[in-house]
Amino acid sequence: MKKIVGLLLALLMVFSLVACGKTTVPDEPVSTPEASDVTTPAPTPTPAEDADVSATENAIGYFSSGVDPASRDKYQIVWAYMRPMALFQNIESALIELETKLNFKTTSYCANSDIDAMIQNIEIYADQGVDGFLIVIDPTASARIKEVLDGTGIPYVA
């Protein structure tokens, strides 16, 4: 397993070097503009300055595409994990901090090592209409938890 991870990391480094190493040389020399030719560009309007912000409602876009992330409905995401650990609680804190910036709402759930409770709560959250799951799957019940998650039809990252 360590060899596979090492090979993947080595390939990732090679691909990043190849991607960053390509440079292009301009065919013709770049001329510097005269002082009288320089004009200041007009400032680009922010989404708040657009005439109709509701036109981007519920549209998916990037921060620079003019889509106001606060104009769309909030995504309801469930962060679920099996055991209370400092790592998982730190991830929960980071998700809560990002809620206002990325316009989503996080519901956190710790199963306290109870696999049946985890499966039951996945089904309950799915019935409540959540938009996605961020979940730490316990290796002892990974097949069953994956089966339940696939059965909900809701996207998840495990």
Explain what this protein looks like in three dimensions.
The protein has helices at residues 2-21, 86-102, 115-128, 142-152; strands at residues 75-81, 104-110, 132-135, 156-157. The chain has 158 residues and is α/β, with parallel strands linked by helices. It has a four-stranded parallel sheet with strand order 2-1-3-4, with helices on one face. Helix 4 links the parallel strand 3 and strand 4 (156-157). The longest helix has 20 residues, at 2-21. It starts with a helix and ends with a strand. The mean pLDDT is 77.
- Helix proportion of residues, in percent? 25-40%
What structural class do helix, strand and pairing data support?
alpha/beta
Helix count, per DSSP? 4
Largest β-sheet summary: 4 strands, parallel
- Uncertain residue segments: none
Categorize the overall geometry.
Answer: extended
Main sheet: strand order? 2-1-3-4
The N- to C-terminal Cα distance equals 19 Å
What are the SSEs and their pairings?
Elements lengths: L1 H20 L53 E7 L4 H17 L1 E7 L4 H14 L3 E4 L6 H11 L3 E2 L1
Helix pairs in contact: 3-4
Q: Which structural traits does this protein have?
A:
158 residues, alpha/beta, 4-stranded parallel β-sheet, 4 helices, 4 strands
In short, what is this structure?
By secondary structure, this protein is of the alpha/beta class. It has helices at 2-21, 86-102, 115-128, 142-152; strands spanning 75-81, 104-110, 132-135, 156-157. 39% of the residues lie in helices and 13% in strands.
